[in-house]
Amino acid sequence: MLLRLTRPLSALFLSSSLLLTLNLPAHAAERVTLSYGGIQDSITVADLADFAETGQPSAKLAAYLLLTNRQPEELRDILTRSIPMESSLLSSALNSFVGDLLLNQVDDVVINPDGNSRDALRTALIESAATNNRLTLLEVLQNHPADDVQIDGDRLVQFIDQLQSLYQGISDFGL
């Protein structure tokens, strides 16, 4: 009798676990080291996600914002600013010569301390766009394969502008 109950429960548990994990990235960044104006601090991606959703910064994030003299709304906008980006178009672009040039420039903005920043960022961008044909910085961080990611806030806005320009240029040519 116990064996008859154990098999269906085991199968249910296994299939439920599989379904839950299929929707999650295989590995995601856990911490982000933000540097802005000479001030650097490490924040968890979970704290950033909570902040993006609620608008309420954690104590650590609030202290960082105060030290950098930045408004919470400004960071929230940067985290959640949505860029329309068709995933197949993005994949083609990032796997091209122009995409390589862009990713080389981004190595100074989003840094993987373990190395291989360019490939890690390419993966995070493509996986982020694959879910909804849009990109946000928060999604990219959540899909980044490194445990720790460093972001140079002084150069971040330049990268976002370049990414929007790349997408617009590719869209205009119908690639």
Task: Please characterize this protein's 3D structure.
- The chain is of the alpha+beta class and 175 residues long.
- The protein has nine helices and six strands; from the N terminus they run αββαααβααβαβαβα.
- It starts with a helix and ends with a helix.
- The longest helix has 21 residues, at 2-22.
- Helix 5 packs antiparallel against helix 7, helix 6 packs antiparallel against helix 9 and helix 7 (117-132) packs across helix 8 (137-143).
- The radius of gyration is 19 Å and the shape is globular.
- It has one domain (27-173).
- The strands form two sheets. It has a four-stranded mixed sheet with strand order 2-1-6-4.
Summarize the model shown:
This protein is an alpha+beta fold and 175 residues long. It has helices at 2-22, 45-54, 59-67, 72-80, 87-94, 97-106, 117-132, 137-143, 153-173, and strands at residues 31-36, 39-44, 83-84, 110-111, 134-135, 148-152. 24% of the residues are buried.
- Mean pLDDT, to the nearest integer, reads 80
Tell how many strands the DSSP assignment holds. Answer: 6
Strand order of the largest sheet: 2-1-6-4
Our count of domains comes out at 1
Biggest beta-sheet profile: 4 strands, mixed
Beta-strand content bin: 5-15%
Gyration radius, rounded: 19 Å
What distance separates the N and C termini? 61 Å
Compressed to H and E, one letter per element, the order equals: HEEHHHEHHEHEHEH
Indicate the structural class.
alpha+beta
Main traits of this protein?
four-stranded mixed β-sheet, alpha+beta, two-stranded antiparallel ribbon, 175 residues, 6 strands, disordered N terminus, globular
